[in-house]
Write the structure tokens for this entry.
Amino acid sequence: ETGVTQTPRHLVMGMTNKKSLKCEQHLGHNAMYWYKQSAKKPLELMFVYNFKEQTENNSVPSRFSPECPNSSHLFLHLHTLQPEDSALYLCASSQETPGAIYEQYFGPGTRLTVT
Amino acid sequence: AQSVAQPEDQVNVAEGNPLTVKCTYSVSGNPYLFWYVQYPNRGLQFLLKYITGDNLVKGSYGFEAEFNKSQTSFHLKKPSALVSDSALYFCAVPTHTGRRALTFGSGTRLQVQP
């Protein structure tokens, strides 16, 4: 295990539903990330949080709403999704240190299916 | 923007043979390069990284990668492949110079045949 957990592991939701994905890291890191992995596309960065502040939003539609209440927890709130949003959503964390680049540790992902 | 390219969608190799998974990069400044592996129904696992120093970087599970500045490449290698190495492999670079978020290649599926 990498020290990053994600729940649920699988989620099926209708286009009018509201659901949330949860990520928790047990590594003491101060940066967390959401990535989207679709079948036909490379991994796409969605959001970056550093010390609970959102530092990057990679032009993600507003139907995806992130929340980072503390440096250990990250949520992705979902509402009025489209079928093309079906994908594997991966959470990652890393230690941010000025001037240094550290590897990211990934959770197992949430497989989302939008019907 | 910084980027990496993985020219092969799939690599097939027989068990016990050496394997190479290719990656080329396009970055400004000093390159920071990563390799990750993804097993079925799992998240990505970090294998190794190049920051500076020796051009041959050793990582987890017997993998290593060779940094070649003149060819802008960072190929992943292993002297003797195992069936259990069959997985999806990703090369990555920081999205922007000095940023921590990563831009990934399209991935290469490695299939090791018994």
